UniProtKB/TrEMBL annotation:
Keywords associated with the record: Carbohydrate metabolism, Glycosidase, Hydrolase, Polysaccharide degradation, Xylan degradation
Catalysis performed (reactions): Hydrolysis of (1->2)-alpha-D-(4-O-methyl)glucuronosyl links in the main chain of hardwood xylans
UniProt family annotation: Belongs to the glycosyl hydrolase 67 family.
Annotated Alpha glucuronidase N-terminal domain residues: 1-76
Name under which the protein is recorded: Xylan alpha-1,2-glucuronidase
PANTHER family in UniProt: ALPHA-GLUCURONIDASE A (PTHR39207:SF1)
């Protein structure tokens, strides 16, 4: 669709009429088209059609509701902004997932957990009386990419957000967002009946507790008639949950679901559940906890699953729960904020990561059982479906700290609407709407974006390495992190480096996490000849001189990947410098400074990790990988202070 000729203008030869409206109000227009199934469009789908009407060329943006017309109008504006050919349009666009929400890990005190773009935009203290203009901009921005929900509060929940004091503030935001088709959700702290309800238990099978939640939900709906429902983190990282009462995750979720059912509310129940005691490979625990509960959740429960089984790493194999619970609608949880991917200063276009995950075949019901088909509900015919993105938004002037962080917010919205949309297409659209249609700019900046995910994997965690970042703040390299209060929060637990090699054995000879995948995946990843090298050290512990497909030893391959990542950031820097004349000074300068930071930190990651692992490999750096600037001792003793986001 994108026109290639730079001189192409959007002027239309003859005068064209633009009509925006529903078919019921435009019967004569509707009579001229016969290929539209208005029922299939539902409440959110739209059409954009070029047609002749009363002898005049006309473009009709049609849909059944105001929300659909809003989505269609934003899509048409995108066509104009990106200089696409609008002379003969025939667009039908229907969202593939039902619930498309941002998760704000925002605290009532306006700090943002894992946030790198300033404070929380929710000015609770001045709500409900002061509606910041930014709230309206937020609503428009999200509606422009089809996001139809927002969870306002942190999953490490504060029970106070469910009190009347807060609910009237939440209601003011809900009123602001409603015209843009955005529903408001809140995180529900499982122990709220005790903390704000005066009960002495939160046992989900206790009648008084059920009654408390029923009444609390009714109270919420008095404030917010179209309240979306609850997002819940339970039995995880110290959060209370049903395990406190020897109840299952389904019993916990269903208690809330029953309270919400009379109001058509939903529960998004997170599968991010793992024990405090590290009894088994952390990558296996959510599957062990949830798979036996397949089909046991109420119909208005979505189980929200992170893309990978550990925790939003630069790259993870898809979470084994995808494909393992056909009776239960599973919702994808992606992280848009870059907790493990360079936080507030690294340019990492996450559309590539999201696309890689969604396109992966789980083989759950034979070939073609992609994660996307599980998430949009089509594989198992679930009408309830969804995608959540942990927001990267804050009070920074450009919303996301890094200018290119906006591209990740955009990519999330576009993929939640259509999980099969290509990352390249998303990047190009965003660039044209953000920086303009100059072809050199679009070409070079798109190249930067589309190589940036592979670059960060290379300079942080190549070949399946994972979770080797700094302690607690997760900033910078920390492969030496060990001996903490829990093994599975250290780095040595995951890389298992020793004189005999490196990597986490998740095959039958190790934790056997592989057994949680479909047989086709098990066979492919178990076999060293067929296991994708990008997952090699996620599933295998291999000797330093293991021979890679390239002929290099594993040690050399690891070192060369780290070096490749550094060189890729250098290339991004040079690409950006080469388009200086096509970008306004303020944005150019900020991105340039951040790319310089990113390049320096890529070298930091390379040097610190290779020096640390070299202790075990006892091998020299291969040709092409420079000697580290400092000693290992220097890197291990460097303690960044006041790192944002924790
Ligand atoms: O990604 C990790 C983060 C925590 C986060 C947790 C979760 C909100 O380090 O900050 O807590 O996972 O996803 O619940």
């Amino acid at each position: 669709m994108l026109d290639s000729s730079p001189e192409f203008s959007t002027s239309i030869q003859s005068e064209t009429t633009l009509i925006i409206g529903p078919p019921k109000q435009l019967p004569d227009l509707n009579a001229t088209v016969d290929n539209i199934s208005w029922d299939d469009l539902g409440k959110e789908g739209f059409i954009i059609q070029s047609l002749q009407h009363n002898g005049k060329s006309t473009i009709w943006i049609g849909g059944n509701t105001d929300q659909a017309l809003l989505y269609g109008t934003f899509d048409f504006l995108k066509l104009l902004q990106t200089h696409q050919d609008i002379s003969s349009l025939n667009i039908t666009s229907i969202p593939q997932t039902k619930v498309r929400v941002l998760n704000h890990w925002d605290n009532p005190d306006r700090t943002v957990e894992r946030g790198y773009a300033g404070s929380s935009i929710w000015d609770w203290h001045r709500l409900p009386d002061y509606i910041k203009p930014q709230y309206l901009d937020y609503a428009r921005a999200n509606a422009s990419i089809g996001i139809n929900g927002t969870v306002l509060t942190n999953v490490n929940a504060n029970a106070q957000v469910l009190t009347p004091y807060f609910l009237k503030k939440v209601a003011a935001l809900a009123d602001t967002f409603r015209p843009y088709g955005i529903k408001v959700y809140l995180t529900a702290r499982f122990s709220a009946p005790m903390e704000i309800g005066g009960l002495d238990t939160a046992d989900p099978l206790n009648d008084d507790v059920q009654k408390w939640w029923d009444e609390k939900v009714n109270e919420i709906y008095k404030h917010i008639p179209d309240f979306g429902g609850f997002l819940v983190k339970a039995d995880s990282e110290g959060q209370p949950g049903p395990q406190n009462y020897n109840r299952t995750q389904a019993e916990g979720a269903n208690m809330l679901a029953k309270a919400l059912q009379p109001h058509q509310g939903i529960v998004m129940w997170r599968a991010f559940v793992y024990s405090n005691e590290t009894p088994d490979d952390r990558a296996k625990q959510a599957y062990n906890e949830f798979k036996p509960l397949d089909g046991k959740f109420e119909d208005n429960v979505l189980v929200q699953v992170k893309n990978g089984a550990i925790d939003f790493q630069p790259r993870e194999p898809f979470h084994p729960l995808f494909g393992a619970m056909p009776e239960t609608p599973l919702m994808m949880e992606f992280q848009i904020t870059q907790e493990y991917l360079g936080q507030g200063t690294h340019l990492v276009f996450l559309g590539s990561l999201f696309e890689e995950v969604l396109d992966t075949d789980t083989y759950a019901e034979g070939p073609g059982s992609t994660v996307a088909k599980i998430v949009d509900g089509s594989l198992d015919n679930h009408s309830l479906s969804g995608m959540a993105g942990v927001s990267n938004i804050g009070t920074d002037r450009n919303w996301t700290g890094h200018q290119f962080g906006q591209a990740n917010w955009y990519a999330f919205g576009k993929l939640a609407w259509n999980p099969r949309k290509s990352a390249a297409n998303i990047a190009q659209e965003w660039l044209r709407m953000t920086f303009g249609n100059d072809e050199e700019l679009v070409t070079k900046a798109k190249r930067m974006m589309l190589q940036s995910h592979e670059a960060v994997v290379n300079y942080m965690t190549p070949l399946g390495l994972h979770h080797i970042m700094g302690w607690s703040h997760h900033y910078g390299p920390g492969p030496w992190v060990t001996d903490k209060h829990r093994d599975d929060w250290t780095s040595t637990y995951y890389h298992q480096a020793s004189s005999d090699g490196i990597g986490f054995d998740r095959t039958a000879s190790g934790s056997n996490a592989l057994s949680q995948y479909a047989l086709e995946i098990q066979r492919k990843y178990e076999d060293l000849d067929s296991c994708p090298e990008k997952y090699l050290l996620w599933f295998h512990h291999l000797p330093w001189d293991y021979k890679m497909k390239s002929g290099n030893s594993l040690w050399d391959e690891i070192a060369l990947h780290y070096q490749m990542g550094v060189e890729q950031t250098q290339g991004m820097l040079e690409d950006w410098q080469s388009i200086k004349d096509h970008v306004d000074k303020q944005r150019y300068d900020q991105v340039l400074a951040f790319l310089q930071i990113q390049h320096n930190e890529a070298k930091w990651w390379r040097d610190a990790c290779l020096l640390y692992f070299q202790q075990f490999s006892q091998k020299p750096l291969p040709e092409g990988v420079p000697q580290p600037e400092f000693t290992l001792d220097h890197y291990q003793n460097f303690k960044p202070l006041f790192v944002p986001g924790i």
